[in-house]
């Protein structure tokens, strides 16, 4: 790398650092309303980033304390750029993650910073070896930062899908246990309580939340409707709606639960058959594009060589 390029890079880094320092000077920075009233509200629960879930003896705690305001500012800018707060809030609820949209945006900022740091590391190694263009490597770092931000969103979608699969796998067993409890003479709330205490899994956690809402004064039917809206699964919504209708109209609850468990198992069986059919089609891709050409080459190559020898 030429001395001119090295000097330009060092000068740019120095200028960027000096600009950051100058912008953070107290007499040049106008404090916001949150900064002015924040110290007076610290005792009733501040808005520190992730500090409630991080051990105070961890080094990560000090990092969050130091860069918390910058992370919140980056999360605000990212929210203005990307938008979709309602979609993020809904997916966080469906994934069972107790985070706000701001905390999720902060996680995206951290993932983007990690991608940018990885790009800078690659750029420094490449420049030390005399390979690559500094501008291109800087663009690569920015591209990795964007990939990091989008990867956190994609990972959230995968978390939602995994949790929905677990809920669907647990739903038939929970429905049959509820049917057994109701048939044994227990009421709907007592049966839900027994199943929630006996089972382990995502659906048991949701049932415990339903029971907590009913103990707080919410009607059971409305709590079940909230469960259906919160999960977003068609089968679970049908299950909650069936429970609510049975409670409102006095339908035999055990028969309804057994019928729903059978319908859920039949739907899972159909989905498994459809998934197998899709996998069968996808398995044809390596057979057609990899195995078949190699087989044809092995079959025709000796004949082609023989014809060439005869013709020669």
Explain how this protein is built.
The protein has 312 residues and is mostly helical. The chain has a domain at 165-269: Receptor-associated Protein, CATH 1.20.81. The chain has helices at residues 3-23, 33-37, 59-82, 85-95, 101-128, 134-183, 188-198, 202-215, 220-231, 234-249, 253-311. Helix 7 (188-198) crosses helix 8 (202-215) and helix 10 (234-249) runs antiparallel to helix 11. The longest helix is centred in the C-terminal third of the chain and has 59 residues, at 253-311. The radius of gyration is 30 Å and the shape is flat. The two termini are 56 Å apart. Residues 43-47 have low confidence and may be disordered. It comes from Kribbella qitaiheensis.
Radius of gyration (Å): 30 Å
- Please report the number of helical segments: 11
Largest beta-sheet details: none
Determine the CATH topology of one domain: Receptor-associated Protein
In the CATH scheme, the class of one domain would be Mainly Alpha
Stretches where pLDDT falls below 50 for ≥5 residues? Answer: 43-47
Average pLDDT taken over every residue: 79
Any guess at the CATH architecture of one domain? Up-down Bundle
SS content category: mainly alpha
How far is it from the N-terminal to the C-terminal residue, by CA?
56 Å
Shape: flat
**Helicity level, as a percent range?**
over 70%
Order of helices and strands: HHHHHHHHHHH
Strand content: under 5%
User: How many DSSP E strands?
Assistant: 0
Characterize the quaternary organization of these chains: single chain
